[in-house]
Amino acid sequence: MAKQKTAYVCTDCGADYPRWQGQCSECKAWNTITEVRLGATPSRGAVRTGFAGLTESKVQTLSEVDLQQVPRFSSTFSELDRVLGGGIVPGSAILIGGSPGAGKSTLLLQTMCKLSETMPALYVTGEESLQQVAMRAQRLNLPTNKLRMLAETSVEVITQLADQEKPKIMVIDSIQVMHLADIQSAPGSVSQVRETAAYLTRYAKQNNVAIFMVGHVTKDGSLAGPKVLEHCIDCSIILDGDSDSRYRTLRGTKNRFGAVNELGVFAMMGDGMKEVKNPSAIFLSRGEEHGSGSVVLTVWEGTRPLLVEIQALVDSSQLSNPRRVAVGTEQNRLALLLAVLHRHGGLMLGDQDVFVNVVGGVKVTETGSDLALLLAIVSSYRDHLLPRDMIVFGEVGLSGEIRPVPNGGDRINEAAKHGFKRAIVPIANVPKNPPAGMQVQGVKNIAEALELL
Ligand code: TYD
Ligand code: MG
Questions:
Q1: Are residues 252 and 292 in the same domain?
Q2: Ligand 1 mutation pick, 99, 106, 142, max ligand atoms within 8 A of CB
Q3: Which ligand has the nearest atom to the CA of 106?
Q4: What's the CA gap between 261 and 254, in Å, rounded?
């Protein structure tokens, strides 16, 4: 007999508990824990399902495991394939997050229309009407005669109809409007989102259909409702972009079938999303007025270099607690760098507001950006213009040393290709034969770097 299970779930953070309590121990919120009736779990005798669907369980040696490559098929967008680790794995559940208007529906509609030419595909929309989707497809000139469409929000109905349609690929737009009848709370609530996602993930595996689930993100950039979501799905990718910029970046945050460090770049054009296959220099604001506090650096994104510009503004503060604001990079890293700058560079910015911004809405998380950030701050503080044709990279250690970063040579070559003439890099990254016309200067510590300025 299948057993009905209950759980007590915090509606704010998604943490779950075996019994009710007044305060959530995870996020410390009061009165947010509600009882959730979960779907029936299979009784003990029932066969558990593995990745390949209903298979018989057996224990085997690791070396006996069939090493056949995970089969994949292309999404028709090489930038999307790149982020997914080489293509879509049949039967996988992929969560695609992003703020409203980022272009999730557009990207998936384009993918599905093209994929439907070669395989059965089902697009489920719970947010837009069929007319809206059809109008968009027509405007974007997409092939529409094979894509199967469904406007529905009940997951039970969706899976029932999918049983008849037998798609190989499916889109659920979006997970926040979907609901299961078993669960009492409203669509979009933590328990609904988590149970519908788990239900759909099981369905994907049992029926070997790849499912894209669209998820909206909250203001701080995390997926609405759920760290819990990340446990059950196979891949999670985020579509990001500045609303003033037409560029959109796609980044993996979890991938069971490949690496997560790849970055895919798209441009939102009048006729839909276009891939940017060679994105290395698109985020540079060339030709515009150039002032102090601006530095170009080369970051390494997965398997390719990307040139981005960092700007800093240092200004005397009126506040007792001067502001440290980092846009597109980490706030804590900024605080750390300011401390190192004080201790080992002799520059005291305790009475200054410090703002840094990564141009173009890109996010730079790599520690290889440290030196560039630091030089941008110093450049702004001293109102000292840095050469326009210079790139910088390197990690800054807590004792003021500049550490090498991976792929130093390739970063320098890429900059040279785009006309940069000078580079300040960690001493261990100085190539034996720098590219022609490129003057590379290696630095050991902060003091040396500041001297070069
Ligand atoms: P959409 O895919 O609906 O975003 P999401 O599903 O992530 O919320 O994209 C909507 C935005 O994209 C909207 O602001 C208009 C813009 N857009 C274009 O610029 N060009 C286009 O061809 C399309 C279809 C949309
Ligand atoms: Mg949408």
A1: no
A2: 106
A3: 1
A4: 9
Cβ–ligand 1 contact at 248 (below 6 Å) = no
- Supply the pLDDT for residue 105: 95
Write out the residue range of the structural domain in which residue 245 sits: 72-277
Instruction: Assess whether the C-beta atom of 346 lies below 6 angstroms from ligand 1.
Output: no
Closest C-alpha residue for ligand 1 atom 22: 272
- Is 317:351 a contact under the CB 8 Å cutoff? yes
Residue type, 375: L
Q: Are 204 and 306 in the same domain?
A: no
CA distance 300 to 306: 6
- Give residue 124 CA to ligand 2 midpoint distance, Å: 12
Contact 237, 94 (CB under 8 A): yes
Q: What is the pLDDT of residue 287?
A: 59
Query: Measured from the CB, is residue 106 less than 6 Å from ligand 1?
Result: yes
Could you report the per-residue pLDDT of 342-361, keeping only the tens digit for each? 999 999 899 999 999 998 77
- How much is the pLDDT for 7? 78
* The ligand 1 atom nearest the CA atom of 128: 3
pLDDT tens digits for range 397-417: 999 999 999 999 999 999 998
Low pLDDT (below 50) residues in the chain: 1, 41-54, 225-226
- How many independent structural domains does the chain possess? 3
User: 287-310 pLDDT, tens per residue?
Assistant: 556 788 999 999 998 888 889 999
Nearest one of 218, 117, 220, 236 to 176, comparing CA atoms: 218
In a domain, 409, yes or no: yes
Q: How many residues does the chain have?
A: 453
pLDDT of 44? 45
- Whether residues 253 and 305 fall in one domain: no
50 lines ligand 1 (CB under 6 A): no
* CA 325 – CA 346 distance, rounded (Å): 22
Same domain as 179, residue 302: no
Distance 103 CA to ligand 1 centre (A): 5
How many separate helices (H) and strands (E) can be counted in the chain?
Answer: 10, 21
Which atom of ligand 1 has the smallest separation from the CA of 239? Answer: 7
- The pLDDT of residue 407: 92
